[in-house]
Amino acid sequence: MASTFPKPEEKTLQALRDVANRLRIHSIRATCASGSGHPTSCCSAAEIMSVVFFHAMRYRSAEPGHPSNDRFVLSKGHAAPVLYAAWAEAGYIKEPELLKLRKIDCDLEGHPTPRLPFVDVATGSLGQGLGAACGMAYTGKYFDKASYRVYCLLGDGESSEGSVWEALQFGSHYQLDNLVAIFDVNRLGQSEAAPLRHDTDIYRKRCEAFGWNTYVVDGHEVEELCGALWQASQQKGKPTAIIAKTFKGRGIPGVEDADNWHGKPMPKDKVDSIINTIEGQIQTNKVLPIQSPTQDVPQINTGSIKMPSPPAFKIGEKVATRKAYGLALAKLGNTNTRVVVLDGDTKNSTFAELFKQAHPERYIECYIAEQNMVSVALGCAARNRTIAFASTFAAFFTRAFDHIRMGAISQANINLCGSHAGVSIGEDGPSQMALEDIAMFRTIPGCTVFYPSDAVSTEHAVCLAANTKGICFIRTSRPETPVLYSQEEKFEIGQAKVKSYHLFPYKKEACVVRLPWSQNRLHLKNSLTVVCNGGKCAILNKTPDYPRKEV
Ligand SMILES: Cc1ncc(C[n+]2csc(CCOP(=O)(O)OP(=O)(O)O)c2C)c(N)n1
C-alpha cells in the first residue's frame, strides 16, 4: 500500500465493522424468514459490502438509478440478501421489507433483478456480472466521459466460468481504470471447495497476468479493504482486482468455514443465539455518511430515433441484407450519438465495419468472446445510457444463449444481429451456418425477431429495433439478394407482408411459398395455412392445385 493512503479514523473503521455485522444479521434473519437462501455466502462478503457501500461508493441513496451514481454489480447474485441489507442500511429499503425476501409479492427476489432500481443487470447465473460491469465502465469512461465508477463482486467458485476471464481480458484491454472487481475468496463453492481454495497468490498472479492492478487483502479487515479501494481510485490505465480472503459463514459459530452450509438458512431454533453472538460485536449505531456523486453525466436522448433519410436502394438492385445492416447502422449513428456498435471480430462479415468507419469512437471491438460481448452490450445499455447493437455470425450467438436469457430477465434493451443465416452460406459449411438461432431467440421472453428479406426491410428493421424495448434479433444473410420494396414501403412489428407468393409442387400435400418477412403462421385469403421459418414456408394444408399469385 502506498504511504499516502488516508487511513480512516478508528471510529469510522469501527462503524464499518458494525455495519458489516448488521448486514450479517439482516441476511440471516431474511433467509430464515423465507426458509431458503444463502446466508453463508452473504456473511463472507459482509465487510466487503460495508466498505464498498459506506466508504468507497458515491451515490444518492434516495435515487439508486441516478445516472451519476457509482454502479455496483453483485455477480454472485445468490448473495442477494446482503445487497438488500446494504440498501436497507443506506435507507432505501425499509428494514421490515427484508423479511419478505423471496415472497411472491415482493421484489426482493432470491437473485437480484432490475425490478429493483438499484439493480442494473440480473445476476444469479454465475460468471456474467463482470462482463456487464465492463460495459458500464466502458460507457462511463468513453461515452459518458463521466466520473462514476463501477464495482463488481464475484465469488471464487464463480471464477471458474470462462466468461469471467473473457471480461478480465476486455477490462484491461480497454484500460477501464474506473472498474473494480472484488473476488470474495471464501474457499468454498456449492458442493465442495473451489479449486484454488484459499490460494490467493494464484488468483493474484492470474489477475496480474490478465493486466489488472491487483491487491490481496484480508476480506474481513475493513482497513485493508479501504486501503485497496483507495489505491484502486488512484490507478490510471488499469482496472483493479481485489482478492479478498474471507471465510464462508463468517461470524456464525460452528458454520464458519464449514462444508455443507451453502444455500441453507440457519435453523430456526439457533437463529436467536447466532444473532446474539453477532450483535455482541457491534459497538456503535453510527450512521455513516454516503458520499454524493459528481454530477457530470451528460443529458442524452435514447428514445424516438429516426433515420435521417429513406432507404436509398432501388427495386431489383442486388444487396446482401448483412451489408444493408451495416449501412443502416452508419446512417442511424448520424442521427443519434448514443447509438453504439459492438462486434466479435467479424465486422467485415457482418458489415458492422461500416458503422466503425463512420463513427469509430462509438465502435467496441469485443474480439472472439461472444458471451462477454452480449454482457458488455447489456452493461452499455443499462440505465438507457446507449442504444447498443452487437453482431456476429448468428450461429455464434447460440454460445451466448444464457447471457441473452439473462438479458431478458434484466429487462434489457439491446439489439443483436446475426449474419450468415441459413443454408445460403453454403460453401462455408455447417459450422458457420445459423440454423438453430431463430428458434433460440424465439424462446426469449419479449424478444422481437426480424428476418428481413431485402435491403429496404433490413434498414427498417434496424430503425424499428432501435426504438423497440426488450431484446431484438435481426437475422441477416450473406448472399446478395434483390431489393423487393420501394423507398416508401412502411413496416410495422407484428405485421407480415405478402409481396408475392408462388406455390410450387413439393409433395402432393405440401407446397413452398416465399414470404418477405418472418412470420410464424399466416392465414392466406384462400384459407391456406402457412407455417414459416424465415423466408421459406411450407403450406400444411392439402391443396388440390398449385396456384401462383402476386399480391
Ligand atoms: C452458471 C451457474 N452454475 C451453477 C450455479 C449454481 N450455484 C449457485 S451458487 C454456487 C456456488 C458458488 O460458489 P462461489 O462463487 O464461491 O460463491 P459463494 O457462495 O461461495 O460466495 C453454485 C454452483 C449457478 N447459479 N450458476
UniProtKB/TrEMBL annotation:
SMART domains: Transket_pyr
Keywords attached to this entry: Calcium, Magnesium, Metal-binding, Thiamine pyrophosphate, Transferase
Entry similarity comment: Belongs to the transketolase family.
Organism from which the protein derives: Phrynocephalus forsythii
EC number: 2.2.1.1
Keyword Glycoprotein: no
Cofactor or coenzyme needed: Mn(2+); thiamine diphosphate; Mg(2+); Ca(2+)
Cross-referenced PANTHER family: TRANSKETOLASE, TRANSKETOLASE-LIKE PROTEIN 2
UniProt KW Calcium keyword: yes
Matching Pfam families: Transket_pyr, Transketolase_N
Stated name of the protein: transketolase
Transmembrane regions listed in the UniProt entry: none
Domain called Transketolase-like pyrimidine-binding: residue spans: 319-483
Lineage of the species this protein comes from: Eukaryota, Metazoa, Chordata, Craniata, Vertebrata
UniProt-listed SUPFAM superfamilies: Thiamin diphosphate-binding fold (THDP-binding)
GO molecular function ontology, one term from the record: transketolase activity
Subunit structure as annotated in this protein's UniProt entry: Homodimer.
